[in-house]
Backbone:
């Protein structure tokens, strides 16, 4: 059995046995829905319905109902898309990269982080979908034989790379998540007394029986999937950044975009994981499994990636001046002093300055401060995309076509709506799915549980 | 002779491992172990071979790479070459840099899904399959070792039962089967 240093903080607090872990996680699924959950899902559903209404109106009328104009042809739509995709990066990072690094603390958070990833990527996919205007011909992005020639899709275009990257990312994350869920569904199936839920969980568990050979395969599949999901995560946001970087727009045409976008994505993804988990651990009584130590680890990731993002902002500014290209320089001068300077400074404050507070151990380990800062990071990262997209195109080469973007209520409605849909999906997940990876937590109980650590400590 | 299957239940994976080691020393074959999580180190004791899923996954990835490259050569070079911003469209080699991202994504797609499907089929875990763990507690906190008389002709059922009873079990059940 693996042993762990006694001075290392335990990952599972309290006097827990295998049975307790099952009870703590499956208990809430078996019981009645708590009032707080019902209240929250009512609110998120209302917001979701409003969003669906706005989307329906948009599709019925046309994308002219957005505030886009001749100069600013991309605004909230693509901002929201990149924001959601970025958030979606934390889940796979936690489950794949941290698995390769054998980080045991990921086991308390990977299940819900992966769920968050999947829901966030679904929300991201909404935006390019509705931006097409004619959603019913969205299959045109696939290389299918057609009656136009056959005229194929353009494989030289980063926008098409994105189609492949996002769909691969979504389906691989889904498979990764589901393979991990199967043994836990089996646990629920074997405990459930009510006949209908028992049948449903039996179906979902695919007849998992937990044989030794099954577990060997399970671990191999998890490892290999983690191995291929790791470069996948990095490729996905690199490709998203190439949507911009391969264009010739000053402010977008930058070679640092891929690493800058990837670290930004991890940064915002971890912030969203923290926002959700800090609420979940409290409302679902998971304080023993997701505690200060886990939050601290995540905050360390936030400060590292946040600082990388900060360096990227400064590098961009420096290079725009150093390049000697006047258009490039103007794009950045306009960014921090033009009509959108307020957005630029919100971005700077939220992404670069406030996360530096995490250098203080007290703040890193303070749950309330973390919660507030995680929301600030999410706001900041939304503004980052808004700044990159809108400020770079609102003043183009021809001053007579300079303009500004004004969001309409449909722009706002759809964005808020996706948050509602995302919230609803996540709440459904929290209610009916095992929110912690039971089988993985049980496997680290003896090496990282508080009670077992004390026991070993006494031995020596 | 009537075949018998013995299920010995343990509440700790280490006790089960020790028991399995002792049984192996006495020449008893353990047919199966059911556990709520992977027990590291049990495989060599009960004779479970290493899975070849990773090799399968590599083969799926290679298939994906070839398919993606062939597809893009056909679409972009052979069937309908297009001049897009003067980008090279005459040979696959010249156009290759632009094809790298999709080749990579498609290889990953094929590797992941191919491996997942193989995993489900080999494990016999597919939607609607019935579960076959001997006791519902094996997905919660109990560990069950399955020993059959069929695989252990040198030992009688009583022998096996006494051997298992001494190994720190919680429960034991002996059943006849065909």
Residues:
């Amino acid at each position: 059995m693996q042993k762990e240093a006694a001075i290392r903080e335990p990952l599972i607090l309290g006097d827990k046995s295998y049975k307790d872990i099952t009870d703590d996680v499956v208990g809430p699924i078996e019981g009645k829905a708590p009032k707080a959950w019902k209240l929250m899902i009512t609110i998120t559903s209302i917001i979701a319905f409003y969003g669906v209404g706005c989307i329906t109106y948009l599709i019925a009328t046309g994308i002219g109902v957005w505030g886009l104009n001749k100069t600013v042809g991309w605004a909230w739509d693509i901002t929201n898309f990149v924001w959601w995709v970025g958030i979606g990066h934390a889940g796979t990072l936690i489950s794949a990269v941290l698995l390769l690094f054998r980080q045991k603390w990921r086991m308390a958070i990977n299940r819900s982080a992966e769920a968050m990833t999947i829901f966030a990527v679904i929300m991201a996919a909404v935006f390019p979908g509705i931006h097409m205007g004619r959603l019913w011909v969205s299959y045109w992005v696939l290389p299918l034989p057609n009656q136009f020639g056959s005229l194929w899709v353009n494989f030289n275009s980063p926008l098409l790379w994105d189609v492949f990257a996002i769909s691969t990312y979504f389906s691989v994350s889904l498979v990764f998540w589901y393979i991990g869920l199967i043994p836990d569904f089996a646990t629920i199936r074997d405990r459930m007394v009510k006949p209908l839920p028992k049948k449903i969980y039996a179906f979902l568990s695919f007849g998992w029986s937990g044989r030794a050979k099954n577990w060997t395969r399970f671990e191999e599949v998890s490892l290999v999937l983690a191995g291929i999901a790791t470069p996948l995560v990095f490729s996905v946001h690199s490709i998203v950044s190439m949507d911009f970087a391969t264009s010739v727009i000053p402010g977008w045409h930058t070679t640092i975009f891929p690493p800058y976008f990837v670290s930004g994505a991890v940064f915002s993804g971890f912030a969203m994981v923290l926002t959700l988990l800090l609420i979940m651990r409290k409302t679902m009584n998971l304080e023993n499994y997701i505690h200060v130590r886990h939050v601290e680890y995540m905050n360390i990731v936030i400060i590292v990636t946040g600082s990388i993002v900060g360096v990227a902002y400064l590098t961009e500014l420096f290079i725009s001046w150093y390049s000697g290209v006047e258009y490039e320089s103007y794009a950045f001068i306009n960014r921090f002093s033009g009509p959108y300077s307020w957005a630029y400074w919100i971005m700077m404050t939220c992404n670069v300055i406030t996360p530096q507070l995490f250098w203080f151990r007290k703040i890193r380990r303070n749950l309330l401060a973390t919660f507030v800062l995680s929301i600030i990071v999410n706001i900041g990262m939304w503004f980052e995309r808004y700044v990159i997209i809108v400020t770079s195109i609102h003043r183009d080469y021809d001053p007579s076509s300079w303009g500004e973007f004004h969001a309409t209520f449909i722009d706002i409605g759809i964005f808020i709506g996706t948050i509602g849909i995302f919230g609803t999906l996540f709440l459904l997940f929290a209610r009916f799915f095992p929110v912690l990876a039971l089988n993985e937590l049980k496997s680290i109980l003896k090496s990282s549980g508080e009670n077992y650590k004390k026991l070993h400590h006494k031995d020596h | 002779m009537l075949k018998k299957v013995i299920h010995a239940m343990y509440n700790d994976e280490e006790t089960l491992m020790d028991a399995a080691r002792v049984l192996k020393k006495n020449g008893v074959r353990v047919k199966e172990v059911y556990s709520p999580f992977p027990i590291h180190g049990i495989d060599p004791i009960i004779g479970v071979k290493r899975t070849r899923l990773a090799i399968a996954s590599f083969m799926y990835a290679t298939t994906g790479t070839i398919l993606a490259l062939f597809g893009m050569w056909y679409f972009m070079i052979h069937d309908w070459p297009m001049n897009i911003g003067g980008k090279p469209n005459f040979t696959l080699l010249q156009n290759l840099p632009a094809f790298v991202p999709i080749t990579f994504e498609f290889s990953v797609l094929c590797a992941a899904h191919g491996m997942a499907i193989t995993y489900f089929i080999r494990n016999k875990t597919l939607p609607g399959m019935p579960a076959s763990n001997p006791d519902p507690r094996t997905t919660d906190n109990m560990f069950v070792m399955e020993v059959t008389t069929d695989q252990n002709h040198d030992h009688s059922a009583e022998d096996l039962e006494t051997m298992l009873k001494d190994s720190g079990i919680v429960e034991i059940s002996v059943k006849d089967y065909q």
Notes: Residues 92-123 of chain B form the longest helix (32 residues). The two ends of chain B are 10 Å apart (CA to CA). Residues 53-123 of chain B form one domain. Chain B touches chain A through 65 residues (CB under 8 Å).
